[in-house]
Structures are given as C-alpha cells and as structure tokens.
Amino acid sequence: MKITVEVHSIACGLFPSGEGALNLPDKAPLSKVLEQLALKTDPDEVYPALINGTPVPPDERTGTVLQDGDHLVVFPPIEGG
Amino acid sequence: MSWQGKILRVNLSERTCTSEPLNMDWAEAYLGQRGLGSKYLIEETEPNIDPLSPENRLIVATGPLTGTMASTGGRWSVICKSPLTNALACSNSGGYFGAELKNAGWDMMIFEGKAEKPVYLEIKDDIALLHDASAYWGRSVWEIEPELKQKHGDPQARVASIGRAGESLARIAAVINDLHRAAGRSGVGAVMGSKNLKAIIVRGTGGVSVKDPARFMEAVRAAKEKLDPSERRIRLGKFGTHAMMDATNSFGSLPTRNSRDLQFEGVKKINAKAVTVPRLSDGKPNLIGTKACFGCTIACGRMGLIDPTYKAVAGEDKARYRKGTGGLEYENAYAFGPMCGIDDLDALMYANMVCNEDGLDTISFGATLSAAMELFETGAITTENTGGIDLSFGNADALITMVELTGKGEGFGKEIGLGSKRLCEKYGHPEFSMTVRGQEFPGYEPRAMKGMALAYATSSRGACHLRAAPFVPDFTKVTTEGKAEVVKFTQDKNALVDSSGLCTFPGPVWDPEDLAPKFDAALPGKWTAERIMECGERIWTMERLYNTASGLGPEADTLPDRQLKEPAGSGAAKGQTAELEKMLPEYYELRGWTPQGHPAKETLQRLGLA
Which domains does chain A have, with CATH numbers? Predict the structure, then answer.
C-alpha cells in the first residue's frame, strides 16, 4: 500500500523536502512508520502526528495501522508567540 | 540588588519628574513588569476610570532579571487600563529598550496626568527631562527614532514611541521600540497618545547588580546548557514563530476569513517555507536574516525584505520600505493572511512594515479588518462606508490601503482603529467580532484547540495566546480532558515569567525548578520554585479581581457564538464546537475559586490578597 507524507519544520532523513510518498506493508503501525521517516526529534517531547487530519496521541500509535491512500502529517511540538 | 529600587514618576500635567523608592514589599510579592506594574496601577487608580483620561496611568516596567546576564533577560512591559477592552492591559516587548532603562537605574516609570502639548522624555542614567515634541508629533516611529538619537548625540540610546495610530487614539495602537519591536496588545499606544507623550529615549550606563554574581552566572550557565541544544531553541532560531502556520493549517485550527473557515487554501504562498524562496525580480527571498533581543540565545526574530518591484512600494517616497526590516512572524502573517483570506506574501510584508512604522498591533489590525470584510460581504457596510474600498475577503489591495489609513487614523481606517468589537457593534453585527473581553483572536481556533478555548475565555487581557500554553496537548488530541489543569499551570507560570524580565519562549524547556536558581542568586532572600509559582498565581488572581471590579469578571469568561454554537467545518475538530462549558467548572475548582468564578476567601488569604 502507499501513503503520502508531509513533515513540517523537522529535519526528515527519508524526505529532506518534507514531502513524499511511501510504500508500506499492509497493517503498518504508525509508530513504525514514524521511525522509518528518520525524523530529527527531541526524545523528551511529543511530536503531533495526524492521519487524514485526525491526531493520533503517542499512546495510540503502536495500535494504529495505516491504510492505503492515507495522508500522514507530522509537525514539531510547537508553541505560539 | 537585581531590583534597582527606584521608580521614576512623571507627572505630565505638572511637567515634573520625581524619583521615589520602589515598594519592596510589593516587589517581593509581585516581582516586576506585569505583576508589579499592575499592582501599582490597581493601587493608584479606580477600576472604572476612562482609559483615555488623564486619570489612567501608563506604567513602563522592567522585571528583576531584565538587563542581567540571564538568557532572554531583555523583556519589559507597558501596563495601563486598556482602551480596547477596559480590562487590565499589560503588553510585553523585547528588543533593547527595557535593558537600557534598567541599566539607567530604574525599575519602572509611572506616567500620570496629561501634557498640555506633545512631549517626549529623555533619560540619561538618573537624569530625566521632559522636552517639547511638537517637531515629532504627526510623524512615524521610523522617522523620529533615528532623529531623536541624532539630536541627543547617542546612537546607543534606545527609543520607545508611538506612531500616528497612537496619536489618533486608535484603540489598537501599539508602543514600538527599537524600530520593529512592539508592546502591541490591548491599545497601550492609545493611552500613551492620550497623554500627549510621543516618545521615551533612554541611555543607561550603570549596570545591574545581583546578590551572588558567581552563583548567578552558574545558574545562567546551567539554564543555557539546557536551552541551547534543545530542538525547541534550534527550531525557533531557524524558522521563527512562522513555522506555526503549517501546524495550525494541517490541524484545522488556523482562523480563516474571520473564523468562518479553519484551513486556508493559500497557506503555501505565505508560510515559513515561502519566505525562503528566491523571487524572480531580484533573486532574493523575503527572509534575509534573524535577530535577537537583549541577552537572548534563541533569536526567533525575522528580518525581511519586500520585493522591491512590488506595487505598494513603488516610487521615491516609498524607498524606506525597500530595505531590510522586521519580518513576518506567525501572528502577523495569520492576521493579514488567512484571517483576511489573502495569500499575497508582499502585501503581508507591507502591512507588517506599516504597522511597525505607525504603531499598530498587527493581530488586532488584521482581525478587525477581517471582521470588516465579513460586514462588507454580508452587506452590513458598503463602499459608501469604506470610502470606495472593496473589502472583499482576499483583496490584497484592500489590506494595503486599509493599513495605511488605519496607521494615519484617516477615512475608514479610523473605524478599523476602534477594534473589532466596537466596529461590529456599530454596524449591528456583534456576532462577527472574534474577540474575548473585546480583544481580537490570535491565530488559534478555539473549536479545534480546546485548551486554547479555555485560555482565551479566562485570559486576563482578552483573547491571548501568551497568557497560557496548552499548544502541545491541544495538537496531540482534540479533547477537553486535562486542559483545565494545563491552562491553570501555564497561566501561573507565564504570569511569573512575564513579571521576571525573561521571555516565555523557552517554554517547557525551563520549568519552575530551572527558573528558581536565577531568582535565588539574584534577589535578596530565599527563592524556590514554589515561591515563584505562588507569585504567578497571586498575579493571576489579582488581575481577576481588577477585571471583576471593571465589570469583566466571570460573565466575560466566554467565547463568540461562532465558537460556541457553529460546528467546525473541517480539520481535526470537524463537527465540534469549543465545549467551553465542560472545562470552566474544573478550572474554577483548580484555582480555588467559587463555582461562580470568584476567588474564594481562603484562596485570597493564602495568596495575601484578602
């Protein structure tokens, strides 16, 4: 299956431009996909992840599997100013 | 020791400048800046005064750590009763002005009365003089700041001033310092204008001493060691606050077209990436550099350069705009862009420059223009009202014209200067005003960000994104659960940081345990995390009491009907409203307030406010 990915304001090893399409095995869990993206992240912080616009909290990412055609967005734990 | 122990009181009616000792009991309870300035305002004025009358005070306050070696220690505040909201106004700025004032030996300046004719204040260390400002009145911040420095022969002096917006008493006017830093919110510039005070120029050479210099520097070093390698600091330095736009748009919490929509189709033309793309005309991008405030190791500030061929800056008389200056950040880009439906990057940049030049709050200007656009599109106002200007959403030419008129207080710009609430009430549609306690929304939609809904509704200065910081929990899950606790904690923490001289941007990287050692090494007495957090809670509760006395208590803890009744049309919260009613009771309980939203007697006694 294939998903599309958008990464905002985080260095992304897999997609340096921040955007791309990813071929995945069926029932790939979100936690594994996030590892595959090779994001430069701070382990002490939570990075919001949305599947088709719906946020998936960290404790639900292992049990959440992606579907063909899904759109994944990841952005940093950003605060306003 | 860290506090200078001195206040400069300036009676503009009598044209006198007097030094008086700082009330140290109050300083220990309310720290400085927001907390201490508010305490003085509350003690010296009645809550029901006209904010634009001579009875109001204009208080310019530093914090105990302003001007020290502490990282981010360049913050200062303007405090008064707000002419926009009638609530307590406290607007925070950075740059170098605050540290200069502190180094001149002053913790605070209190302006009272009203000058008969326009004046400006000159401070050189402990000497303070009022001068005639008739040569500067009617002119912009960008014109007078360099002239004042030249006149006083000191390029290292720092200036805070108002532009024509403040002079014309626009209720969304800002005080601008260092050319493009702003004490922007709540109309503090109009209060300065109402007093006929055009500018303050200050030079300080005295330094700021701390209790235990070696231990203070060790505390500063430890805090920097934590901040410097953090992804948060690196990200803010690289992208500035502008990076927020992709997050809110993806999430569906980017207020668009006066909050009728929550995602903006033109976001890629105006986001943090767009400002880095070289343009065809001169091969340069909009973003040309970064800038930092006094003592800051983050450098979130942007320097921008408009396309020199852009229509709004053509001609000899517009040459000043074709130079590098303060650039786009998230809040101004949101307010001029998505909120008005405009995706023209150079129009946004131009509006930002004019707001700095003439002293306007960028958030309130953009959000009020968006309300006017909704009034226009629904026929409540027409070109007869606007002087022929087509105020359709998406019209970049309207943004260009309206920012010029509002900056000068002319034509329909005078009406934009009323702010969104008064404008919408005047034309019979108060429901179009996206405000809380009369202050316009920043760029976070409460229906999708439930913690921000509670933060806006309970904010002591009206809708504000800096009074609390529920951002990450909000982006992690669309729920009301747990939001009251995070809002209460970050309100208290931000109240203490806003009163300290430091910046809130290190955020969770510096928890109260990281902040306390700096206070303890700098100030007399013993300072713990618990003590500084109690100061934050005391300040928040004091603000509540003042606002309640001003008629803006629990009954004002609400949001516009659009957020309470109209479900979100897209994004993570599609189909949902703000659900404020689910959070308020828990919030009041956590604060030790009654179910009706008043601080309980035991809470007031515990905080020394009874």
Answer: 2-74 (3.10.20.30)
Cα–Cα distances in angstroms (integers) from residue A25 to residues A4, A62, B15, B64, in the given order? 14, 15, 78, 58
Six token digits for residue B113: 């009365």
For residue A25, the distance in angstroms to the closest alpha carbon of chain B comes to: 26
The CATH number assigned to the domain with range B6-203 reads 3.60.9.10
Structural contact between residues B295 and B231, judged by C-beta atoms closer than 8 angstroms:
no
* A2-7 and A71-74 beta bridge pairing: parallel
CATH T-level topology, domain B446-606? 1.10.599
pLDDT of the residue at A44? 84
- pLDDT tens-digit map of B541-598: 999 999 999 999 999 999 999 999 999 999 999 999 999 999 999 999 999 999 999 9
Q: What is the mean pLDDT of residues A43-51?
A: 92
Unique residue bearing structure tokens 């022969």:
B153
Contact in structure between B474 and B295 (CB atoms under 8 Å) = no
* Of the partner residues B231, B330, B475, the one whose CB lies closest to the CB of residue A55: B475
Mark yes or no for CB contact A9/B243 under 8 Å.
yes
Confidence (pLDDT) at A42: 87
Q: Which CATH number fits domain B256-433: 1.10.10.10, 3.30.450.20, 3.50.50.60, 1.10.569.10?
A: 1.10.569.10
Residues of chain B with CATH 3.60.9.10: 6-203
Which residues make up the CATH 1.10.569.10 domain(s) of chain B?
A: 256-433
Q: Is A50 close to B250, i.e. CB distance below 8 A?
A: yes
The pLDDT tens digits for B75-88 are 999 999 999 999 99
pLDDT recorded at residue A43: 86
Average pLDDT over chain B reads: 97
Closest Cβ–Cβ partner in B230, B241, B508 for A81: B241
Q: Note whether B571 contacts A: Cβ–Cβ < 8 A.
A: yes
Q: What is the mean pLDDT of residues A26-41?
A: 95
Q: List where CATH 1.10.599.10 sits in chain B.
A: 446-606
Cα B469 to Cα B457: distance, rounded to the nearest angstrom: 14
Q: How far apart are CA A35 and CA B518, in angstroms?
A: 38
B128, β-bridge pairs = B123
Q: For residue B61, what are the β-bridge partners?
A: B77, B108
Distance set, CA B337 to CA B268, B284, B351, B443 (Å): 11, 21, 10, 10
Q: Given this model, what pLDDT does residue B298 score?
A: 95
Q: Is residue B35's pLDDT more than 90?
A: yes
- Cα B418 to Cα A7, B169, B255, B369, B374, distances in angstroms: 40, 9, 21, 11, 16
| DSSP label at residue B393 | T
B 319-378 near A (Cβ less than 8 A): 329-331
At B285 the pLDDT is 98
Of B244, B478, B574, the CB nearest to A78: B244
